[in-house]
Amino acid sequence: MAPPLISLQDVHLRFGATPLLDGAEISVSPGERLCLVGRNGSGKSTLLKVAAGLIEADAAVRFFQPGATVRYLPQEPDFSGFATTLAYVEAGLGPGDEDYRAQYLLDQLGLTGHEDPAHLSGGEARRAALARVIAPEPDVLLLDEPTNHLDLPAIEWLESELKSLRSALVVISHDRRFLQNLSRATIWLDRGTTRRLDQGFSSFEAWRDQVLEQEETDRHKLDRKIVAEQDWLRYGVTARRKRNVRRLGLLQSMRTDRRDERRAQGNVKITVTEAETSGKLVIEAKGISKSYDGTPIVTDFSTRIVRGDRIGIVGPNGAGKTTLLKMLTGELAPDSGTVRLGANLEIASLDQKRAALDPNTTLRDALTGGGSDQVLVGGVPKHVMGYLKDFLFTPDQANSPLSVLSGGERGRLMLARALALPSNMLILDEPTNDLDLETLDLLQEMVADYPGTVILVSHDRDFLDRTVTSVIAAEGAGSFTEYAGGYADMVNQRGHGVQAKEKRGESAPAKASGKAAPKAGGAADEGKKRRLTFHEKHALQTLPKTLDKLRNEADKLGGVLSDPVLYERDPGSFERTSAALAKVQKELDAAEEEWLRLEILREELGG
């Protein structure tokens, strides 16, 4: 097995009285695909920063392979000092890196490179940061929530791009499908320590449950042993004084271990306050349309939603999902068409931007409205401390300002606020943002068991598959189509997922026909002339130099092997040179094939 590129052992880090990392370990070998999982606040991002060398641990054994390149994607990138996104991405390139990749990746991610970083949206900032860390094709990529703020086309493009890289990956993400598609091993950070599973994320949850069940069994055995020793202490301490002293010491040690044991954090207790049952018909929309400045956002859409339906709305950013949602709930009037809402609707909503949270407000006041220690849950008063505990907040946090909360904690607080209101209809706009996997599990169960109606906007494919009964998908140019089932069912019916935002000069994907959209450059692109991409043009310019370099290297290695006494004099050198020659020859063959393919393509396209 190849030596690791990065190795961290026995990492200790304390913030305040409680240790955050208490003997954590992580090792990254060439080409490895690791996912790092754990509860919100368990220290995943901190451990990743220690691995990247951005935080110094209180104690750790850290090995860094000399010459290895590492790039780290933070959750909140710093754009200060850069005039454009292209300048920001190019600053991440190292000596010898291909300059063209900065512009190429920005193009792929829907940016021009001329954007002012000070005015980027959350999604645009994430795309620029991804381009910066991917462009150098480093030996190790450390990615902290890379899918945050990305839409489905960007997530699926990112999956494909990361699969094609030879870089080792360590990924933190709440997106199950993303982790399942990329990971080959799993690091579980739990109560300050790490456990490793040499299988991808798809096997993690069953393994985690087995570990926790075994812990509970061991804890029960320890409790029984402590009771037995305490009974002995009361009734049998008189005989054999030395042995008694030792046994008493063991009992005290067991008590200490039991007291200091860090137990697994509990689960969020999600309960929904039910309002009066709504009518059978919840929403009926007929031919609704909306446009801004002549641009169609929603065009001639009709649907009928009845009590108990769970509707998912999907599409790329800017496709009009939020506009459609506002029209369906009566918040926004359509330009044409009609929307009829059912009787007795009580709507509770979760805002994806957490806009309703004042950063200077305390947790207590955010739930109670201030001046009280009670929160109304379905009209019934409940002590705020008990309700905070249901959502995994500690009493110490009750009087803390919201500005100190992590993204996951803010998400839990918004859930607590929304679910305290009586409702028979839930509107969830990106509810999965920043939630840990355990909270996601419970949110999925809550949505699935909710007696009312749910409409949610999400880019989380796994969450959609587990919760919704139908999907409304943006088809482009303001068109929306409804498909029965979850996201995977939509893909089967549609022939493709939410692949990519419509680009200039390209027709929209095949709509609601059940046929796959034509691939770029295929025969289905009738009436359009295929052109060489920026990447292909650059390859045609640079491949001849690459071929010359590889041929020279092959000739040089061949000259070394032509020595008739080399093997007899130095067998090790002969084997190393032979292996190097085989590698160079393989690269040369691949480069020649690529150059030939591009030359033929250029001739077919008329230069």
Question: How would you sum up this structure, described in words?
Answer:
With 607 residues, the protein is of the alpha/beta class. Among the domains are: 45 residues; 214 residues, P-loop containing nucleotide triphosphate hydrolases (Rossmann fold, 3-Layer(aba) Sandwich), CATH 3.40.50; 71 residues, Helix Hairpins. It is built from 18 helices and 20 strands. The strands form five sheets. The chain has a six-stranded mixed sheet, sandwiched between helices. A six-stranded mixed sheet has the order 14-17-18-12-19-20, with helices on both faces. The longest helix has 34 residues. The radius of gyration is 29 Å and the shape is globular. About 6% of the residues have low confidence.
Helix tally equals 18
Give the CA-CA distance, first to last residue: 47 Å
In angstroms, what is the radius of gyration? 29 Å
| Helix/strand/pairing category | alpha/beta
CATH topology of the domain at 281-494: Rossmann fold
Number of strands: 20
Low-confidence stretches: 237-243, 503-529
| Major β-sheet profile | 6 strands, mixed
Choose one word for the global shape.
globular
Estimate the mean pLDDT confidence. Answer: 80
Would you identify the CATH architecture of the domain at 281-494?
3-Layer(aba) Sandwich
Task: Chart the SSEs and their pairings.
Elements (H helix, E strand, L loop, with lengths): L5 E10 L2 E11 L4 E5 L6 H9 L6 E6 L5 E4 L11 H6 L9 H9 L13 H13 L5 E5 L7 H13 L3 E5 L3 H7 L2 E6 L2 E5 L6 H32 L5 H20 L20 E12 L2 E12 L3 E5 L6 H8 L7 E6 L5 E4 L12 H6 L5 E4 L2 E4 H7 L16 H14 L4 E5 L7 H13 L3 E5 L3 H7 L2 E7 L2 E6 L2 H8 L39 H28 L4 H4 L1 H34 L3
Parallel strand pairs: 3-7, 3-8, 5-6, 6-7, 12-18, 12-19, 14-17, 17-18
Antiparallel strand pairs: 1-2, 1-4, 8-9, 10-11, 10-13, 15-16, 19-20
Helix pairs in contact: 7-8, 16-18
